[in-house]
Design a protein that fits this description.
The complex is a heterodimer of chains A (452) and B (523).
Chain A lengths: L7 H11 L30 H13 L22 H7 L2 H4 L11 H18 L3 E2 L6 H16 L3 E4 L5 H14 L2 E3 L11 H7 L4 E7 L11 H9 L3 E6 L18 E5 L15 E5 L12 E5 L5 E5 L6 H4 L12 H38 L4 E3 L7 E6 L3 H10 L6 E2 H4 L9 E5 L6 H15 L1
Parallel strand pairs in A: 2-3, 2-4, 4-5, 5-6
Antiparallel strand pairs in A: 1-7, 6-7, 8-9, 10-11, 11-13, 12-13
Helix pairs in contact in A: 3-11, 5-11, 6-7, 8-9, 11-14
Chain B lengths: L35 H4 L35 H12 L22 H7 L2 H4 L11 H18 L3 E3 L5 H18 L7 E5 L5 H8 L3 E5 L9 H7 L4 E7 L11 H10 L3 E5 L19 E3 L2 H5 L13 E3 L11 E5 L2 E5 L1 H4 L17 H37 L17 E3 L10 H10 L6 E2 L9 E3 L7 H20 L18 H6 L11 H5 L1
Parallel strand pairs in B: 2-3, 2-4, 4-5, 5-6
Antiparallel strand pairs in B: 1-7, 6-7, 8-9, 10-12, 11-12
Helix pairs in contact in B: 3-12, 5-12, 6-7, 12-14, 13-14
Classes of the chains: A alpha/beta (452), B alpha/beta (523).
Chain lengths: 452, 523
């Protein structure tokens, strides 16, 4: 058992020191009926390192990895190239195997990184302050809605039809138990976002309006009129960013009037990983900070006056306030936040803008090429690196057929909105810097054949 | 004074640091590192890009006009920045990390290698299910192990962390009660030794929280619990093994009483590593329990996360489990989501996360589980408990062990600050341990013990490592009992001396801001 260092003589010496006759005797407090006297039946015994590698490699080989096929999936998870040094650095044991930085004198590495991460996120989102990360974008979005309820003391949230349907699902699940009232609808396949409807729905009970930017169809809504209408009714605007790379090209939500900005940071440094772990981003204005969920790192000084960092404002948190805490969260996505931060540091402002420009230019080229395919109509007038096509056929079987031919064509709206017949022909296509001109041509040619 | 394993003789106190100031502020291998905002530049990037096609903008008039304010570093500078920072962290790779209830054990690198196989790391959560059969099979295999090891009926894999798992369990309880027309049960009973997440979770799910006291020997007061049960009680949240390091002997009686009164039993499974492979919570009447994959199955903590908190359910709660989940259908693995849930899973309380949970953690946990097997996991809990009892008995002559007489401890040993010199606290002992080259134990938790020190050695520590740690803690405890003033200033040798946490909270500085030019500042 290669991970267990005690030898049998060690165990005997320790049992003698403890005064116990056997290891089993140490489990005396467990009721006899619930105590097994040997390994759990029905499970195999231990395997060598080589055997485990063989087993898991065989399972991995059953999946079609994104890098082995022309790949166009997005809708909340994006395939970007991650520089090699990101993964190298996050695998340093001092980061990988460190605990939550509760002993700041020997956790300055993690703490300074979090302080830098908070600053990067705040700058990117155009907000005063960000926290040290959340589980993912969808849970961060729900936490923002509950935060708006605490701030405004109102319980009605208006969710844009352009908000990721899984984010809506998470919010609906939670609202059933908390009593929040959520208003939302599915999108329609038009170039227009639902800004007017959102503005019309705001009233004196509204705690917040939640708008995804760019939205689930890839459209880029102008947040300014929505922010104005929300603020005129003393409600908050929550902006949701599922593709942070977009903010290298488009104006930040904070700049456009959002009070809380949440997002999914997976695009930078983290990788697809079949949906997790990801990194939730959460930022807001200074005046809301004491209602913000999650961990916060702050600057201070040590006994010699040297600058240092600590976790702070913990009086909001569950370990102090228990049932009165702002949320039950007692973790953050530390390692994914580190990956995000390193990738952002490598890019810098210049690199992020270049990356965003490259994504956008490739997406424009792809949209123009695909719009020429008979049976395809481009829905969007505005987009960043993701857009929606209206096919002449139902999109789900088309996606399956293309997958069989080795092309991962995009996300069919039928998968995301199973009950909505009007969306069944919608296909959301994401084009990042990893997509080549040949990939786009392959997709166009395959779609020509399948739609013919 | 003892000689440590490296043969180096540690000298406490001493050193005339003021006269040894260096030009850089560095001290040999201990390197100071500025903020990236102080060394980076908006004009520098550490990434080279392929040439892009030229195309007109379709951004709909939302182009960014102002600078973002993000400095960049070249690749060598970035690698140095983060490598230097990393050296200011303590980590399990550096030595024993005795955090009680947090469980810092060795993280096998095989798990990392497996999680990075492109077939797992480079697949999208919305790919057609026929292209991700291997990923679904990983989830299914891990689920099978978790259900079998716990003796439960089903498992929800999607919760993102332990506290998220608690929420999952509590929501299933609430959904089950509502399905029975008993939505009026609004009270969750929580023993006072519980993690703060337990009451926060119950409150977040719309319940009223009431405390249940602990007995003098550190366990749930069964009679007090029974007395409180009634038609308004939805259930109990109990931690077992508990945060005093003890097994709840009355667990079966607690479960029976709660069930008889129409409620459900939630077990906080944070400490499952103490009993994994030997005791099945299902045999104790538990209805729902989350499993922190990082604690029991060694996925890395990563400076706080990611966690992963699958929740196992009894048959009574299974119909209410969240979506999505994986189901084996013949030779194929299906992903059951909103659309496919159909009438079979109509009771599901819904979706908790955007995708399918922490896949990267599932791969690591499965790698760890397969490496150990059923026989190895039996040994894991045995060694974890033996190590904790060894620490307890080797130190109880020098540190007060409030529940030392309550039977063997499980995975962790609990001490208090009773008997330290006037004015000396658990904090001083903790900071003294830092100078000995250790991360301190969990401090001031559980709340039922004054000045608690909660020590969890885990099963991946050797006897030699334990003996050295015991020696170090004994030395620090003796100094705290003798009133050694040098201890009040500890740590002396860490990258930072004691940090001013009060100032950080009173005048929060939560981000870097560009220094204002002198002319502006004067306005």
């Amino acid at each position: 058992m290669r991970y267990l260092p005690l030898t049998q003589p060690d165990r005997e010496a320790m049992l003698a020191a403890v005064g116990a006759s056997s290891v089993d005797a140490l489990f005396a407090d467990v009721p006899e009926a619930a105590r097994l006297d040997g390994p759990v039946p029905g499970l195999p015994n231990h395997a060598s390192e080589l055997a485990v590698e063989r087993h898991l490699s065989a399972l991995a080989a059953k999946n079609l990895a994104a890098g082995t096929a022309p790949f166009f999936l997005g809708c909340g998870a994006y395939r970007h190239h991650v520089p090699a040094s990101v993964d190298h650095l996050i695998q340093r044991g001092e980061y990988l195997t460190a605990y939550t930085p509760y002993q700041p004198e020997i956790a300055q590495g993690t703490l300074q990184m979090l302080f830098e991460f908070q600053t990067q996120v705040a700058q990117l989102f155009g907000c005063d302050v960000a926290n040290a990360s959340m589980y993912d974008g969808s849970t961060a979005c729900w936490e923002a809605i509950t935060m708006a309820r605490r701030v405004t003391r109102r319980g009605k949230a208006i969710l844009s039809s352009g908000l990721h349907p899984h984010y809506v699902s998470v919010a609906n699940t939670m609202a059933k138990f908390t009593g929040d009232v959520l208003e939302t609808s599915a999108p329609t396949l038009t170039a227009d976002t639902d800004a007017e409807a959102l503005i019309a729905a705001i009233d004196g009970d509204t705690s917040c309006v939640v708008v995804q930017y760019p939205d689930i169809l890839g459209r880029i809504p102008d947040l300014r009129p929505i922010a104005e209408a929300a603020h005129a009714n003393k409600a908050l605007l929550i902006a949701v960013v599922t593709e942070p790379v977009a903010l290298g090209a488009i104006a930040s939500p904070g700049e456009l009037g959002a009070d809380i900005v949440v997002g999914e940071g997976q695009s930078l440094g983290v990788g697809l990983q079949f949906g997790g772990p990801y990194v939730g981003l959460f930022a807001c204005s200074d005046k809301l900070v004491r209602q913000m969920p999650g961990r916060l790192c702050g600057e201070t000084v040590d006994a010699e006056g040297k600058r240092g960092f600590v976790l702070t404002l913990s009086t909001r948190e569950q370990h102090i306030r228990r049932e009165k805490a702002t949320s039950n969260i007692c973790t953050n996505s530390g390692l994914c936040a580190l990956a995000f931060s390193i990738h952002m540091t490598l890019l810098g402002e210049k690199g992020l803008r270049q990356l965003a420009a490259s994504n956008h230019a490739r997406a424009v080229a792809a949209a123009d090429r695909l719009a020429k395919v008979p049976g395809i109509e481009l829905v969007n007038t505005s987009f960043f690196n993701e857009f929606t096509l209206k096919l002449s056929k139902e999109a789900r079987p088309v996606v399956r057929t293309l997958a069989e031919r080795g092309v991962l064509a995009g996300v069919s709206l039928g998968r995301l909105y199973p009950g909505e017949a009007e969306l069944a022909n919608g296909l959301v296509v994401a084009v990042t810097e990893t997509v080549t001109a040949e990939d786009i041509e392959t997709l166009a040619t395959e779609l020509e054949e399948v739609l013919a | 004074m003892t000689i440590n394993q490296s043969g180096w003789r540690p000298e406490m106190g001493g050193g005339d640091e003021a006269t040894q100031a260096t030009f850089t502020g560095n001290r040999a291998l201990m390197l100071e590192e500025p903020l990236l905002f102080e060394i980076g530049s908006a004009d520098v990037t550490g990434v080279d890009f392929d040439e892009s096609p030229q195309a007109p903008s379709r951004l709909g008039g939302m182009e960014r006009k102002d600078p973002i304010g993000l400095p960049g570093l070249s690749e060598p500078e970035a690698v140095r920045h983060y490598t230097r920072l990393s050296r200011q962290n303590y980590a399990i790779d550096l030595g024993l990390f005795p955090l009680g209830s947090c469980t810092m054990k060795h993280n096998p690198r095989l798990n990392e290698r497996m999680a990075r196989l492109p077939g797992f790391a480079d697949v999208h959560p919305l790919q057609p299910v026929d292209t991700v059969q291997g990923a679904l099979e990983v989830i299914h295999q891990l689920a099978h192990w978790l259900v079998t090891l716990t003796g439960m009926d089903s498992v929800a894999m999607s919760p993102k962390a332990g506290a998220h798992g608690e929420l999952c369990g509590i929501l299933a309880i609430r959904a089950a009660l509502e399905a029975k027309g008993e939505g009026h049960r609004k009270v969750i009973l929580v023993p006072e030794s519980a993690h703060g997440t337990n009451p926060a979770t119950a409150a977040f799910a719309g319940f009223k929280v009431e405390d249940i006291p602990a007995t003098a020997e550190g366990r749930v007061d069964l009679e007090a619990l029974k007395a409180r049960l009634g038609p308004d009680v939805a259930g109990v949240m109990i931690t077992n093994p508990n945060t005093c390091g003890l097994f709840e002997r009355d667990m079966r009686a607690i479960s029976d009483a709660v069930h008889d009164a129409g409620g459900y039993v939630y077990c906080d499974g944070a400490n499952f590593n103490a009993i994994v492979g030997r005791v099945r919570p299902g045999d104790l009447g538990v209805d729902a329990m989350h499993i922190n994959l990082h604690k029991t199955f060694s996925t890395p903590h990563g400076g706080g996360g990611p966690g992963s908190g699958p929740v196992v359910f009894s048959a009574a709660l299974t119909p209410f489990a969240p979506l999505p989940f994986v189901e084996k259908q013949g030779d194929r693995f299906a992903l059951i989501e909103e659309e496919t849930a159909g009438e079979h899973h109509a009771g599901s309380f819904g979706r908790m996360v955007a995708f399918h949970g922490q896949m990267g953690m599932f791969t690591r946990a499965l790698s760890y589980i397969l490496s150990h097997g059923a026989d190895g996991l039996y040994q894991v809990s045995g060694d974890a408990v033996l190590n904790a009892n060894y620490v307890l008995r080797q130190l109880e002559d020098v540190l007060d062990a409030p529940f030392g007489g309550s039977g063997p401890c499980m995975h962790e040993a609990l001490f208090s600050d009773a008997g330290l010199a006037e004015g000396f606290t658990t904090l001083d002992v903790a900071k003294g341990l830092i100078d000995e080259g250790y991360h301190p134990m969990t401090m001031y938790f559980p709340l039922v013990v004054h000045g608690a020190m909660l020590i969890e050695p885990t099963e991946t520590e050797s006897k030699a490592a334990l003996d050295q740690f015991i020696g170090a803690l004994r030395s620090v405890a003796e100094r705290a009992k003798a009133g050694d003033q040098a201890l009040k200033g500890a740590p002396h040798f860490a990258p930072r001396r004691r940090l001013d946490e009060t100032q950080a909270a009173r005048k929060p500085v939560l981000r870097w801001k560009a220094p204002q030019p002198a002319a502006q500042a004067a306005e």
